[in-house]
Amino acid sequence: MFLGNRDPDQLLITPDIAYKILRWRFSFVDDEPSNPPDSPQVSMFLSDTVLGDPGLSELILVTASVDDVPLVSDKRVVNEFCVVFDSGCTTHTFNTLSYLSDYRVCKNNARMTLAKKNVTVPILGYGTCKQLGRVLYVPVIEYCLLSIRQLDDSGYDVQFSQGHARVIHRLSGKLLLTATLDRQLNLYTISQDDFEHQMNFEHRACMAHSIKTDKVSRLHYIFNHASAERIRYLCKCHSFPGLQNLSVKQVEHIRDCEFCRLAKIHKKPSCKSVERHSVLGQMWNGDTKGPIATPSLRYGNKYVFGLIESKSRFLIQYFMKSKNDVMSVAQQWINTYIKPLRAAYPDMGMIFVHTDNGEFNSKEIHDYLLVHGVYSMLTCPYTPQHNAVIERIWRTITEAAIALLLTAELPETYWQEARKCAGHVYNRMVCAHPEKYPKSPFEELFGVKPHVAHFQPWGCIAFSLIHVKPKNHTKERRHVCICWL
User: pLDDT, tens digit, for every residue of 399-414?
Assistant: First the structure.
């Protein structure tokens, strides 16, 4: 297309590729520029309907340097944000949309001629920049231009004194902007930080200030910020010019991409396995699941509180209507398991329960547990990985309950019964590593091998015998029901 007869693979090494893309995309390059090659002026021509206001149709003259259109090279960042005061420009012109509101796209071919480049570039649209008013958007210009004429028309005076230019409101006397004379450019300029501070803008993270423009980094940006290994593989497969045989060191800097760190940050994985406690009944893990969207069928419960013994991995589930029932759950757990455990092992000592910051965190529960020799330990905030034992069991039980509901074709209101069955069966099954832990949680905790011969598929049709014989011998002696175990 715009590369003519050149090999498309030369795309990556074309220094002014961004500029050529614009020329091809908008198709309004003048074969003969209106200004002589050595003219120090740049012309922008606006059609009558470009900005929606016929009164804005005019010839705009802007003083510009030879670097008006920056080239995409390996040593330079494109479109660096810098505001320049220009007495020849009649309309403010920016190379970024970051500070424009009410942006509108130009419908017709508004164009701007860069004399020293002998090319015509597009005016893509216009918007409003707070007190500055209307601003044109021309992405290929190197600096953002502030028009002295437009400032004067808007009621601002520009005062030049001792290397500074100050924009002051004519009526209120309020200072709007202050620019400093750049001796190298011989222009009054405002940096991005100063412009944002003076105009009360939040900082705009602009690619122009952060991206690297070497060939490898540009490939990294093109291919969705791919990893260093994938970039090496892509270069090898596609034979990009000059990038065919990249070493590991040449792509290593991709790992330091600031945008990747912001977008791809994640928590480091916790340990793959948690060792079981050596003393039976001394360490417990607890957590609450819920709220569950559909209340249970019989009791209307929305929460389930689980406790798992660390050595045997025996699971206990308590179903609750609200989290306020945690205290009653703690009392049931103490009476049903902790007191008999202490009676069987009088020399056990302190018992520990490991929960997050939501369940056993109240002073009332802490005091109650301490009376019975149970100490509550809390995880760090927003780190459920620290309570990995119960979290992993929740996944197992939840997946099993969903599978049971789907198999039995029962609605979600039966979730409590499904979770009860899943927990009951889990406690009587050998774990996933029978070579290391050959006993089921039930057998490990109670020392008795569980009886499982009576188990039936959950949700199947069952018949319950009516033990009280009816006086009428013609009535049925059974109830049709659903089997839960």
Answer: 888 988 888 888 899 9
